[in-house]
Amino acid sequence: MKKPELLAPAGNMEKLRIAIHYGADAVYLGGKSFGLRNLADNFSAAELREAVNYAHERKVKVYLTVNAYPDNDDIADLYRYLEEVRAIPFDAYIAADPGVIEIIREISPERDIHLSTQANTTNWKSALFWEKQGVRRINLAREMPREGMHQVRQRTAIELEAFVHGAMCISYSGRCLLSSVMSGRDANRGECSQPCRWNYALVEETRPGEYFPVFEDQNGSFIFNSKDLCLLPYLPELIACGVNSLKIEGRMKGIYYVASVVRVYREALDRYFADPETYCCKPEWQEELCKISHRGYTTGFFLGPPKDIDHQYHSSYIRNHEFVGIVEELLPDGAIIVGVRNRINRGDTLEFIGPSLSANAHVLEEIITAGGEKAEAANPNQRIIVKTSFSAEKYDLVRREKSP
Length: 404
Prior knowledge:
The protein has about 400 residues and is of the alpha/beta class. The protein has two domains: about 5-175 and about 225-310, TIM Barrel (Alpha-Beta Barrel), CATH 3.20.20.70; about 320-400, Translation factors (Elongation Factor Tu (Ef-tu), domain 3), CATH 2.40.30. About 25% of the residues lie in helices and about 25% in strands. Helix 9 (about 255-275) runs antiparallel to helix 10. The longest helix is centred in the middle third of the chain and has 20 residues, at about 255-275. The radius of gyration is 22 Å and the shape is globular.
């Protein structure tokens, strides 16, 4: 068996560097148009070229998202956009709409095409159709269980990609109209406002201002929410299904999320292929995934249709750790320059995390600014000098356990 690719989100250049630092084999990103995450920072044409050069220098592949569903009025702009990025050596474009695929072939016939999950490929016959159209890879619909993945693998030679971690859209293969109706922002054109995450209540017509929660059970009113997907315990089964790429959701998530998830799945994949016979999913890996902001975890459709326990009936994310800084520079004397992202106080116990799953704790007995001044606290956008008894690398992250 060939080790699957670990595919990570890159919403901007910093996230791309972090994903690569923590072990991604490939990243997916979007330009300023025609992706499905237009509310992410995304990349200008110049930044796209920089991103591809940076990744390729480190033997990491880059896939460009062009998976929106354009209207007739968008076609001319789509031609201009694809011409603008034509010379950038992406490893593949990610597309969903047949018309977009046709335009890609007109402008960049040499470019591999990966079919987006938005195309909702849920059966082997559909996969076979796309294989005959020359599509290189299919990101299978999230609604497909492991038995379905296995059947597609048995009947086709096309590369298969599956989501393994991240937020679950409540709509069929992400084809949602809620955002368009409720906020005027079209999810299928990259502008989802995530109304499925909002808090809802009923108002009786003759009692304006009196709000009654919408109960599904005694736990609350969040009738749309899904828990987040996590297939870490089922990596051997995914690999046995013949999946070529394991995709992490989250181009709009922060760098702490990207780093934490990539490092766990990287370690798990490498451990499995080093010794499949004795492999097991370690509790500390799952503990690490619980240290990022999440809504509880579910296996989605992988084991079969979701049950009641796969839905989240309260609003709050689970957050027991918080990201506070990033290692920006290593000084000749061994000290570390930390860029502060959340307030840090003298006396805090900080945890430095790198690509390996080991973490180093450090009690911040004093705070010294980059200018050499002592302080009681450091605020976002400041840089501080930290002297530790252990070594760190550029792009290692710093976190702190949240107070109860």
